[in-house]
Design a protein that fits this description.
The chain has 256 residues and is α/β, with parallel strands linked by helices. Helix content is 28%, strand content 27%. It is globular.
Length: 256
């Protein structure tokens, strides 16, 4: 039985990822209103009522815009860090589980989910490593740099969704004002293409069946630049590399 993941959308206008394994379906982040989430799930052939749990990485709106409404409508339990909960008003949730960013992993059905603290300009941001069916999937976006702890947690993966947010030159020459450029390109902002390649080299790629580049900026990046940077960093990854789009629901990536 495989571990599978699918992007319902990835970028600054909304993020949501589905992970399935051992009969358990997780939703990681929900940056879309309930109606839009239902539409995107339908495109993926998924009934949102089958979602077993919703995990939240941090409080920014492109990851949380629909969390409260979706949890209430679908009666889905929500997991997030204490800091994330206190940083945003999610309204009343049907079932809430709070964790510290350095907590041990939790088990939901047939999947084990490990929170990993990351450097990002949020209250207590995390990303996740999901284990199931004997495989390991890493979800890693929204971090401005990577620490030794991050690198150690994301080694020996079978699948990885990795942020390639911006190209340095496009960010410097683009429409963002200097303050926003500094925020995006800073140590607590978002990974640029070169940083993503460096992280990939650091953690290794021998087991990777799928490398999926996500959270590409629509104003400060282009798919060919992200692809080129990753392939220059690790040339042999090209045949296993896919790129996500903001307005497109991806197919399932199956980790056998």
């Amino acid at each position: 039985m495989s571990l599978r993941f699918l992007s319902l959308g990835s970028g600054s206008r909304g993020n949501a990822t589905l992970v399935w394994g051992n009969g358990t379906l997780l939703l990681i982040d929900c940056g879309y209103p309930l109606k839009e989430l239902r539409r995107r799930c339908a495109l993926a052939g998924v009934d949102p009522c089958d979602i077993d749990a919703l995990f939240v990485t941090h409080e920014h709106g492109d990851h949380t815009a629909g969390v409260g409404a979706v949890a209430r409508a679908l009666k889905v339990p929500v997991w997030m860090s204490h800091g994330t909960w206190h940083a945003r008003d999610f309204g009343e949730l049907p079932e809430l589980h709070l964790f510290n960013s350095h907590d041990a992993s939790v088990r939901i059905g047939g999947l084990r989910i490990q929170p990993v603290p990351v450097p990002h300009d949020a209250r207590e941001p995390v990303q996740f490593v999901v284990e199931g069916a004997g495989r390991r999937l890493g979800l890693l976006t929204d971090l401005g740099s990577f620490t030794r702890h991050v690198a150690s947690c994301y080694r020996d993966l079978d699948g990885l969704l990795l942020e390639c947010n911006h190209d340095l030159q496009m960010l410097a020459e683009g429409p963002y004002p200097p303050r926003l450029q500094a925020r995006v390109g800073g140590d607590y902002g978002h990974l640029n293409n070169g940083q993503a390649g460096a992280l990939l080299r650091e953690i290794g790629h021998a087991r990777l069946q799928h490398l999926v580049a996500g959270h590409l900026s629509e104003k400060n990046n282009r798919p060919e630049l992200a692809r080129g940077a990753l392939c220059r960093a690790v040339p042999e990854i090209e045949s296993r590399l896919s790129l996500l789009q903001q307005d497109t629901v991806s197919g399932w990536f199956a980790i056998e």
